């Protein structure tokens, strides 16, 4: 069974069709990429999955069940998302910003209170919410996550001291502080050089495939080198329609993709 599937998803904005009968599927622990030129519908697809945009037709399934995600509390559906060019508060430290990814819109007291907001099946820690032990466990979890992402040495540093590459890693850390089952990355390679994109691609792949972790990843990006290095399968959108899908090597040779995208990327 697919972790996430879209079936016939169609979205129009006035006379403009943003998505036209789009069907994609990502299996558990799989990393897929979505590419296309500006306006191809990549971010709109993520917006439909997250409940930001309502589809005019079709449906989204998560683990075989219809998904009606609340964009304000994606964690309740086991989904996490990074944004294009997020605004980062430069005066916060790396670990403070990471922990902020667990905040809900409603007021709460103490980091340990986040356990109250989680479905029982996702409460891996038996320590009671709001306790000093729970807060300590959660801080330790944040530090471990930063270590996995290569940011442990910068945990106490202000965000404005980070490089572009480390800020891309930090966006993933904040999004995954509550471990998701589906991670959506929106243009994570923006502003990065070729070597930084290679490193980020390896990090994305290792995040999904780490033993004991149950997470699928959808990466939207216009850098094909990042997509090819990170992803098992690539889906190509053009004017809202899927024009090709396959392995990175298959997509490199696909004539429709060459004409619509790779020849201009």
Characterization of this structure:
The chain is of the alpha/beta class. The chain contains 9 helices and 10 strands. Strand 4 and strand 5 (65-66) form a beta hairpin. Helix 6 (194-209) runs parallel beside helix 7. The longest helix is centred in the middle third of the chain and has 17 residues, at 132-148.
How many helices does DSSP assign? Answer: 9
Give the end-to-end Cα distance, rounded to a whole number of Å: 33 Å
Total strands: the figure is: 10
**Low-confidence residue ranges:** 104-134
Report the helical percentage. Answer: 25-40%
Q: Give the name of the CATH architecture of the largest domain.
A: 3-Layer(aba) Sandwich
User: Could you tell me the mean pLDDT?
Assistant: 85
**Main sheet record:** 6 strands, mixed
H/E element sequence: EEEHEEEHHHHEHEHEEHH
Query: Which structural class matches the secondary elements?
Result: alpha/beta
The dominant shape is globular
Q: What is the domain total for the residues? A: 2
CATH first level of the largest domain: Alpha Beta
CATH superfamily of the largest domain: P-loop containing nucleotide triphosphate hydrolases
Spatial extent as radius of gyration: 19 Å
What name does the CATH topology of the largest domain carry?
A: Rossmann fold
Strand coverage percent: 15-25%
**Spatial order of the strands forming the largest sheet:** 6-7-8-3-9-10
The gist of it:
This protein is an alpha/beta fold and 265 residues long. It has helices at residues 42-50, 94-99, 114-117, 132-148, 164-175, 194-209, 224-230, 248-253, 255-262, and strands spanning 4-13, 16-26, 31-35, 57-62, 65-66, 79-81, 182-186, 216-220, 233-238, 241-246. It has a six-stranded mixed beta sheet with strand order 6-7-8-3-9-10, sandwiched between helices.
């Amino acid at each position: 069974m697919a972790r996430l599937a879209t079936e016939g998803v169609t979205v129009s904005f006035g006379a403009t069709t943003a998505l036209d009968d789009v069907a994609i599927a990502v299996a558990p622990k799989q990393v897929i990429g979505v590419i296309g030129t500006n306006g191809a519908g990549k971010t709109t697809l993520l917006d439909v999955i997250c409940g930001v945009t309502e589809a005019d037709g079709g449906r989204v399934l998560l683990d075989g069940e219809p998904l009606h995600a609340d964009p304000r509390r994606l964690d309740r559906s086991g989904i996490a998302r990074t944004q294009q060019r997020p605004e980062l508060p430069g005066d916060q430290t790396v670990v403070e910003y990471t922990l902020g990814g667990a905040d809900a819109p409603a007021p709460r007291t103490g980091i340990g209170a986040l356990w109250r907001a989680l479905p029982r099946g996702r409460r891996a820690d038996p320590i009671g919410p709001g306790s000093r032990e729970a807060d300590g466990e959660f801080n330790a979890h944040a530090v471990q996550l930063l270590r996995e992402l290569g940011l442990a040495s910068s945990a106490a540093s202000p965000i404005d001291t980070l490089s572009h590459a480390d800020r891309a890693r930090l966006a993933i850390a904040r999004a995954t502080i509550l471990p998701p089952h589906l991670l959506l990355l929106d243009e994570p390679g923006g502003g990065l050089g070729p070597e930084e994109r290679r490193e980020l691609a390896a990090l994305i792949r290792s995040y999904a495939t780490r033993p004991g972790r149950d997470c699928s990843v959808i990466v939207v990006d216009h850098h094909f080198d990042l997509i090819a290095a990170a992803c098992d399968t690539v889906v190509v959108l053009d004017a809202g329609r899927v024009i090709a899908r396959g392995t990175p090597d298959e997509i490199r040779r696909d004539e429709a993709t060459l004409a619509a995208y790779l020849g201009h990327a």
